[in-house]
Amino acid sequence: MQFLPRFSLRTGLIALTVGALLAVSLRAAAIGEPWAIGAGIGVLSLPVLLCFHALLYALARMLARSPVRRTQETEQSSAESPA
Asked: What domain of life is recorded for the organism (predicted)?
């Protein structure tokens, strides 16, 4: 029986390296380094950006699936215009 998923040593080392870099940049941001504050804002803005894009995609998809209501004016103008 296996409780933990199998990961390679390379995957663990990459995760450890990313975590260490994140800890160093958070420490630098805590002491007021401008580059670290900017990098932190940039990294934290990525999930916000992805959520915003997902929301816009869902809105566009919902509008694309909605039925188009035609009024009498639009039917008359489309019938009068030569195609």
From this structure: Bacteria
**With a cut of 50, which residues of the chain have pLDDT below it?**
none
d(CA 58, CA 52): 10
Please state the domain count of the chain. 1
How confident is the model at residue 5, as a pLDDT?
74
Asked if residue 82 is part of any domain, the answer here is: no
Its domain, for residue 22, covers 9-65
Compute the CA torsion angle 52, 58, 60, 63 (nearest 10 deg).
Answer: -140
The answer as to whether 24 is a domain residue is yes
Choose among 45, 46, 25, 48: nearest CA to 37.
25
Task: Answer yes or no: are the C-beta atoms of 36 and 28 closer than 8 Å.
Answer: yes
